[in-house]
Design a protein that fits this description.
Chains A, B, C, D, E, F: This is Hexameric tyrosine-coordinated heme protein. Chains A, B, C, D, E, F: InterPro entries: Hexamer_Tyr-coord_heme_pr_HTHP (IPR021111), HTHP_sf (IPR038125). Chains A, B, C, D, E, F: Pfam families: HTHP. Six copies of one chain form a homohexamer. Chain A has one domain. Chain A is 68% helix and 0% strand. Chain A has three helices and no strands. Chain A has helices at 14-32, 36-46, 50-70. At the A-B interface, helix 1 and helix 3 of A face helix 1, helix 2 and helix 3 of B.
């Protein structure tokens, strides 16, 4: 599985950039743990645990910072 | 639900930028966990746990850093 | 309650910038949890727990990085 | 073991940059803990624990931010 | 107690910049928790807990990033 | 003990820069906790705990981001 869908950080809009940030964060997890059964079991845990939801959103925020800079903040 | 309300990082003032940062952090959570019942239960937990309140404010700080840079710090 | 006291990131000195960073971090918490009783109880916990004091200082460091950049490091 | 494969941050594409980010994160761990038995046992733990998978993806996101800036975001 | 000793981020050398980073991190803690007895008890805890030592060094790294940028990396 | 070996962030190569990042992270710990017995005991803990290994690599990633910027990414 590719790490960066489309192999580019350039997106037309901030919304697309935000989607890409979510994808990058997820694809990192897939790269570290490719077993879908393990991931599915884990998803039931982290998506219902506030602390882990916050930690996930933290990673998205950092990925988005990179993508936003790559797109010169869509200015 | 959109990830970035208004599909732009540009805001008129720092205060609006800070509100957007809070929204981005929240919308990440909604994107990862769309079930409102789960979110409502989780909210009762994280908003009364200092460690998780601090972790939430941490994400807001990172989102705000991106938005502030996007607006050239409203200089 | 406003998120950014004075609705500006510009301060005259680094010391004022650091105070603003502390305020931004706190005001995020107030925005997420407006109930003062909950906050007061939480304060007794996190201000006496080294791990949470460190986590708080971490958020201040990130807010300050943004404010310092906004003020071109007061050079 | 080298810390930076190829001793360069420059990559041809974002995908290669992302791979390098994963490698940098892993090579840090090897440098801190060279014992492969310890690492193998640890891998079984962190790759099945959502919290640690998220923490790992967090490090990748930071490494990638550096590599992306090094490559001027492959613009 | 002042938050930023000397009310400036400018230092003559990286070593002085690193010292300032350590001071900023500590002064944040003092600002959040001014009670010296609480701090002394906490110090015995976090300076003997690897996880909290690592978390402390994490804050120093972020403060240093800001100070290094403020000094244009002493180039 | 000095905080920054060589009192400079400039290195000839990324690999040297990465080594410096590891050293900066370690020297922060020494500065916070100078007692070698405590450090040795702690090392046995954090180098065999995946969560703390990940947290350590996180600090290295941040230190490296600063050093890479200081060296203009060795471009």
């Amino acid at each position: 599985m590719e790490l960066i869908p489309g192999n580019s950080l350039v997106t037309a809009t901030p919304e697309e950039g935000r989607k890409l940030a979510l994808e990058l964060a997820l694809h990192s997890i897939y790269a570290i743990q490719p077993d879908e059964n393990v991931l599915r079991a884990g998803r039931d845990v982290y998506t219902t645990d506030p602390e882990e939801l916050i930690a996930s959103s933290h990673v998205v925020a950092i990925e988005f910072a990179t993508i936003a800079a790559a797109n010169n903040y869509w200015r």
